[in-house]
């Protein structure tokens, strides 16, 4: 399963890229609002840090407006993927982008049927929002699993991108459910790195090593 960062924070992306685990980035208007500045420059900067797909979301709700914004984003870098919210106009825009060879990520997907329609319209990625479904007492991971199964069953090339990931357990569950990609807040990525026994073990090894050096034992090591 590929790992994307769900952020517009350049430093977080830079760090994940250094760790060698970054396969792409997703942004959205809310994440962009946290960093501010020019959305275009943020996107260009992110695209320099990863060669993987970088999702840039359109705001317009009419088809021509979506096409105009999406075409503009697509010119910023070769790895831009235009993010379009699920709607009747969104499906039409996704189909038009597909005809133009512009990749899309259909976002705000909350049901398997929505994901299936997005794939049929030609989306490269579909993003079921796991956490927001869990929030309303529905099992978000079921949508991820069902879409992964359906795409495999019918050789559909669209990838399932598990979004609205809130904790490390979601990541494991998304991988087991067959998600092609999970997009994570940086905090969840950090939580995945750490384990109390690992952190404790590192401290203990260092302590024992220092004690041995002090007492003269283990010389020559
Ligand atoms: O990728 C979509 C994601 O940003 C939504 O996450 O936590 O706002 O539901 P959340």
What is the percentage of strand-forming residues? 15-25%
Overall average residue pLDDT: 96
What's the helix count? 11
Mind telling me the CATH superfamily name? Answer: Aldolase class I
Could you say what the CATH architecture is? Alpha-Beta Barrel
Query: Quaternary status of these chains?
Result: single chain
Q: What is the succession of H and E elements?
A: EHEHHEHEHEHEHHEHEHH
What is the class in the CATH system?
Alpha Beta
Query: Percent helix among the residues?
Result: 40-55%
Q: Give the ligands present.
A: SN-glycerol-3-phosphate
Question: Which structural class should the secondary elements be placed in?
Answer: alpha/beta
Main sheet? 8 strands, parallel, barrel
- Named CATH topology: TIM Barrel
Estimated radius of gyration: 21 Å
Query: Count of DSSP E strands?
Result: 8
Task: Give the neighbour order of strands across the main sheet.
Answer: 1-2-3-4-5-6-7-8
Low-confidence stretches: none
> How many domains is the backbone divided into?
1
Apparent shape: globular
């Amino acid at each position: 399963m590929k790992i994307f960062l769900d952020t517009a924070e350049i430093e977080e992306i830079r760090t994940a890229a250094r760790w060698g685990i970054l396969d792409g980035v997703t942004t959205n208007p809310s994440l962009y609002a946290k960093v501010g500045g020019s959305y275009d420059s943020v996107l260009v900067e992110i695209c320099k840090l990863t060669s993987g797909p970088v999702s840039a979301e359109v705001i317009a709700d009419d088809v021509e407006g979506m096409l105009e914004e999406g075409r503009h984003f697509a010119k910023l870098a070769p790895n831009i993927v235009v993010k379009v919210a699920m709607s009747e106009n969104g499906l039409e825009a996704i189909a038009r982008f597909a005809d133009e060879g512009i990749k899309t990520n259909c976002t705000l997907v909350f049901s398997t049927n929505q994901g299936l329609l997005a794939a049929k319209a030609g989306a490269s990625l579909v993003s079921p929002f796991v956490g927001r479904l869990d929030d309303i007492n529905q099992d978000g991971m079921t949508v991820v699993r069902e879409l992964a199964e359906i795409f495999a069953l019918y050789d559909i090339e669209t990838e399932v991108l598990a979004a609205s990931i809130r904790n490390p357990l979601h990541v494991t569950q998304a991988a087991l459910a067959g998600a092609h990609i999970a997009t994570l807040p940086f905090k969840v990525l950090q939580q995945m790195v750490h384990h109390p026994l690992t952190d404790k073990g590192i401290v203990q090894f260092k302590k024992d090593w220092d004690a041995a050096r002090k007492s003269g034992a283990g010389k020559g090591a």
